[in-house]
Specification:
Layout lengths: L1 H20 L2 H26 L1 H35 L2 H8 L1 H8 L5 H11 L3 H11 L5 H10 L5 H12 L6 H18 L20 H15 L4 H36 L1 H13 L9 H9 L1 H9 L5 H14 L2 H10 L8 H25 L3 H15 L3 H37 L1
Length: 430
């Protein structure tokens, strides 16, 4: 009943708006606002007619945010803000330029986004990228490249929540996470050709001298420009981090409510039928279609729904890879809110998510299809033990911080080693 009332309300409003509100030449400028106004009316009607469903969705979204997202992301938000304030990102920007530029056609400061995006999960990569853009550490095109492949699912979510908690097969974490990150790196390398003729360029602050000395000098320069006392810096960092997480929580609750409404009205089922037109010819089980429809809106619920079906394991793994690669419209909305104060466009990110979903699904099919019998059997004891060790929040945070530290220190060590080898080569040829 609700779906017919909604369609009728949208149709009536659209006809009245087109006929009376705007001249035809101005309609295209207001069509987007008309659509969102109609969606708002749909949401209000749903809340009035089905308050119990709205309440249950809100509670579920709030519980997810409070128990999972808030404790998992808050330390990383605070850490990234502090590293930006104290010039560590500027230090990495100069030191890792020789590594990032040839591989990804990105500035060295992008290495920090790469590290934190691969270890903490959505949408912190977009938040840090927006900070880089505001600090003029990257161009708009470079920022758009960054948000396309550095916003990934959390390794703990894939290795523990999905593999152990949903599939009850710890050995699958190797395939799920491996395909996800391989797809990200593949996408990042391909995106180096995106807008290669970008005219905007950011000149380095220090271009002469030893690269390590230049990096340290840049970090000290940033610190000297920072006039706030340490207490004020900490206060601002915590306020900004909590504010960003509150916005993320709002989106999570909103989309949890929308999914409950869409499921109850049958819209999720209709979306599953639409996906069936595209995917059934490729051999995807019809059981997975409604789960993919749920995953289109929200990643966690879609992944859980896939794991609860009786489809073949290989197809379920591919479906999970597609959902994790896409991220869900909830994540897209979170990313859009993070870059709203910059000139970074959201369309490249959406297209990048589509590409990531396709590449991750292909990699999962290859990894799981050809190596499931041997590779996963060999990895099972290791991954199973890992899954047992990381069930607590403290262990999860320690593991994430160790990954983040490793991904930051390894490129720095590589850059220093390359600089030493270059210096030794110059000394020998003298």
């Amino acid at each position: 009943m609700l779906i017919f009332i909604t369609i009728f309300a949208i149709a009536v409003m659209s006809v009245l708006t087109i006929k009376y509100a705007f001249p035809s030449r101005k309609y295209t400028n207001h069509s987007g606002k008309i659509f969102w106004t109609a969606c708002s009316i749909f949401f209000i009607i749903a809340m009035i007619l089905q308050p119990q469903i709205v309440y249950e969705g809100s509670v579920k979204g709030l519980k997810t945010w409070f128990e999972i997202v808030l404790p998992s992301l808050l330390p990383f938000f605070i850490a990234s803000e502090l590293l930006m304030a104290f010039g560590v990102v500027h230090f990495m920007g100069i030191l890792l330029e020789p590594v990032m530029r040839p591989v990804f056609n990105l500035p060295g400061s992008g290495s920090f986004v790469l590290a934190i995006g691969f270890t903490s999960g959505f949408p912190i990569g977009a938040m840090v990228t927006a900070k880089l853009r505001q600090e003029k550490l990257c161009t708009r095109i470079e920022a758009e490249r960054l948000i396309c492949f550095t916003n990934n699912s959390s390794p703990l979510f894939m290795l523990v929540a999905v593999a152990v908690g949903m599939f009850n097969k710890p050995e699958l974490g190797l395939v799920i996470a491996g395909a996800h990150y391989l797809a990200s790196l593949t996408l990042g390398i391909c995106l180096r050709f995106y807008s290669r003729n970008d005219r905007e360029a950011i000149a380095p602050a220090f271009s002469a001298g030893n690269i390590l000395k230049r990096a340290i000098r840049q970090m000290l320069t940033v610190q000297s420009r920072e006039n706030r006392p340490v207490g004020r810096i900490m206060s601002d960092v915590v306020k900004n981090s909590v504010s960003n997480l509150l916005a993320i929580g709002g989106f999570i609750i909103l989309f949890a409510v929308l999914i409950r409404i869409f499921t109850n009205t049958g819209l999720i089922h209709l979306m599953g039928d639409f996906f069936g037109i595209l995917l059934i010819p490729l051999g995807i089980s019809p059981e997975l279609l409604q789960s993919l429809g749920t995953g289109f809106w929200e990643m966690t619920l879609g992944t859980k729904s896939v794991c609860e079906t009786t489809a073949p394991l290989l197809q379920k793994l591919v479906a999970v890879a597609i959902i994790l690669g896409w991220g869900g419209l909830s994540v897209h909305a979170q990313v859009a809110s993070m870059i709203a104060e910059t000139d970074i466009r959201i369309l490249p990110f959406v297209l990048g998510r589509i590409a990531h979903a396709c590449i991750a699904g292909l990699y999962t099919y290859i990894l799981a299809g050809y190596s499931y019998g041997e590779t996963l059997a060999l990895a099972k004891p290791v991954i199973a033990a890992y899954g047992q060790r990381t069930v607590s929040l403290t262990a999860n945070l320690l593991f994430s911080f160790s990954l983040l530290t490793l991904l930051i220190l390894l490129p720095i060590a590589l850059a220093i080693l390359l600089q030493l080898l270059k210096s030794m080569k110059s000394f020998v040829y003298k």
